[in-house]
Amino acid sequence: MSRYPNSPHAMGRPFGQDYARPGLTGPDAERAERGVRRQVRELGPDTTEGDEERSTVARARIAARWDGRSRPLGMQRTQRGGQTFALDGELLVTAASWPDVEDWAREHGLHREPVDCADLEDRLVRLVAADPVADLTALAGQLRADGHAVSLSYVTPSAPIIKPWGGIGAPALVPFVDYRPGSTEHGRGVRVAVIDTGIATAVRPDGWLDGVERSTGETSNIDPLDAQPADGYLDLSAGHGTFVAGLVQQVAPGADIRVYRAIGTAGTGSEIEVACQLIHAVRDGAQVVNLSLGTPSVFDEPPLALAIAFDVVREIEMERGWETVVVVAAGNLGDDSPVWPAAFGRVVAVGALTAQLRPAGWSSRGHWVDFSTVGEGVVSTFVAGAQSPDLVPEPETFGADAWARWTGTSFTAPQVTGAIARAMTEHGLSAPDAVKALLTTGRPVAGLGRALQILPGV
């Protein structure tokens, strides 16, 4: 018998009972288990020469092929000995601290450049060094010691790739064909924003996600799939947003899902872009926002752009009179190091359990984690294309109606996002009240909040 009983949602009926369970037997089951074991291993330390080589290749792609700003990425050590990505030669300062550090910045060869986000421009100062690969960590530490609000300019990767000692390589994805939605009444009318790699431009023949609007131009939400580099293979995090959106739809089939693109197909995006898209989604009326991304920070404190974005969100909420719930992947660090934005007090942070509903050793954990659910071998909608043999030892080729299995807290957060939307419609609750209702269910797990059984895994 499972240590964690099937957790009812607010109505008392178990999640997932209106879904067709994947019936895997024989070679299919063995293949699925082998692929998921590899995914779990990739979220842990590199254990073989091949794993280490793939991890190194993936790290190089993350550092050199990302579609945020033109400045290169640098890998920084956190105070706990972990790793994080930040833009070389760039610091962020709050507008309130700027008058006190302006002369200092000039003396150190730093000049101010636009933030490129209208909602942050008057609140955040972006300082750039003439040397594009300058490491400004020590300078940031000096300013912080004097009490100034200064931080590095972080990159917020999609959650599967922030494991500090490995786990950078694209997981092996195992196709799954037949997964049917429940009643479209679940979540009907609830507006859910997914801020991620975007949505695949092709509409699936099976009808999944056909209600998600695709947009192009400056506000494009299209996931290009093969761009970093354009080599005929799916990129490192190609299809991540499509997978996440599919998880939301599985739990809340009637939800109005809007997808925003803030991170690239290599799995990285600047915290400024994520902050900007968060504000955009809230302004668009999102009742629940899903962020399957995050980063630790050098000083274990919130990245400034994200912190300021939540200030703007609060102002929007006060003006309109209701609150948006932001659900965030807790991260895949395997310890209690804070991951941002999951560690912000005003968000709902979601960790991971194994398919047997036990704590996943690779999941981030801590007092700031609110929920956990199955995060290993979760099934969702994927995209057409072929995986690169440079990153996956057993590459797959996926068709137009592709389904896949993936592992990470990226895929626990959207399950809880869908659960919130579903509880809202079934009980006429606001998003915050739906969270409170869900907190009364499930089993408390040390460091992983309340364990909810929503979708199955392997």
Biggest β-sheet: count, sense, barrel? 8 strands, mixed
Strand order of the biggest β-sheet: 9-6-10-11-12-13-19-18
Task: List the secondary-structure elements in sequence, H or E.
Answer: HHEEHEEHEEEEHEHEHEEEEEEEHHEE
Mean pLDDT across all residues, rounded?
Answer: 84
Q: What is the helix fraction of residues, given as a range?
A: 25-40%
Total number of β-strand segments? 19
Output the CATH class name of the largest domain. Answer: Alpha Beta
Q: What fraction of the residues are assigned to beta strands by DSSP?
A: 15-25%
Tally the structural domains. Answer: 2
Low-confidence stretches: 1-14, 16-22, 45-51, 54-58, 64-68, 160-180
How many helices does DSSP assign?
A: 9
Search tags:
alpha/beta, 26% helix, Alpha-Beta Plaits, 8-stranded mixed beta sheet, Rossmann fold, globular, 19 strands, 458 residues, single chain
